[in-house]
């Protein structure tokens, strides 16, 4: 079916003031101001009250953490003590609670305008071996695109790592399950709904051997690689003490410096390291809210982009954000980066929109999403400016960021409406909230 999203109030696409035409799951035409589609359409959606963005793409999250938001054990702590406080709670995760946590996170993301999400799940206590399968089920049920990062930890406290023994797995178990989920779920074709990434958690929770073998396995399946890197100064100190090298040198020695690798946070890279990342085509997911909550530092966003490194946005974990709203993350990115660079012109509203769409797509190694152009997937986020906060706004696109938009009115994924009138059709949010709230009590 050919759909014309007609005459938007604003749109992030060149020569498309008259709207955009999708044929099934693919964009086929941009309509200039005052124009009409070149071929007949089957349906018209009047977008005169909507600002149209490419579907937002979240490149780093931990869905299970919706169960431990604003937890008293972890409030007002930096990363290492924050993790030590929460690991014992997360060790209680079971399949039913994880399913609710994933459903809540994906629903929040969809309602904020997110059409593709990457989740980094690295906790596999006994009984939770099906964590990746659960995430895939929930993404398919809601109709959102997803890169499920099969995370891993094999370096526990008894080995000199940070996580407790009960949440780690041995290398053979990790690699066997990684190959299983790649074989079952990973679809590298354009337009795919589910992809798998391999994602050893961090330098202080995995061995270099697991990093290297994960890279080799991902290469066999044309799958991306993901990990946390350069998030805190504690991490730098750990790597220097244990390995005698900085985190990026460790990454390079294990075969990760290549396209289709993207890193979460990337705060403590030197300018020289930014150049190395850009030359290798390694992406970085900027997580401004989490970095602020945990006081981790400022990501060198401008230096990374100038070096050629793909730069995306992520909300990070719902226990370090403490939310899953990607549209809100754009405003936080704008404010934090202007503060970092001490310049109002350093980063613009359109810059952070680009990071959350085109840049995030590049981080995930995808060339079929992230922009509104013929041949791209029909993924859109549509926002109304009818709340009081937008009254008097003159630039509708910039207003989304500057005036603080946080909820989409319509969201389309692959040509199908997944959010209509600000709600997910068929989903009882009140019932979900009750069930999830009861589950969260078990982690008090």
Q: In total, how many beta strands?
A: 17
Instruction: Name the CATH homologous superfamily of the largest domain.
Output: Metal-dependent hydrolases
In the CATH hierarchy, what is the class of the largest domain? Alpha Beta
Number of helices: 14
What do the pLDDT scores average to? Answer: 97
Q: Which topology of the largest domain does CATH recognise? A: TIM Barrel
Which structural class do the helices and strands define? alpha/beta
Anisotropy-based shape? globular
Radius of gyration: 21 Å
What portion of residues belong to β-strands? 15-25%
Corresponding CATH architecture of the largest domain: Alpha-Beta Barrel
State the strand order across the main sheet: 2-6-15-16-17
Terminal-residue CA separation: 49 Å
Helical fraction equals: 25-40%
Low-confidence stretches: none
Report the biggest beta sheet as strand number plus sense, adding barrel if it closes: 5 strands, mixed
Tally of individual domains: 2
Task: Give structural notes.
With 444 residues, the chain is of the alpha/beta class. It folds into 2 domains: 2-54 and 376-419, Urease, subunit C, domain 1, CATH 2.30.40.10; 56-363, Metal-dependent hydrolases (TIM Barrel, Alpha-Beta Barrel), CATH 3.20.20.140. 36% of the residues lie in helices and 19% in strands. It has 14 helices and 17 strands. Strands 2-6-15-16-17 form a 5-stranded mixed beta sheet, covered by helices on one side. α3 links the parallel β8 and β9 (145-152). α2 packs parallel to α3, α4 (171-185) packs parallel to α5 (208-220) and α8 packs across α10 (301-307). The radius of gyration is 21 Å and the shape is globular.
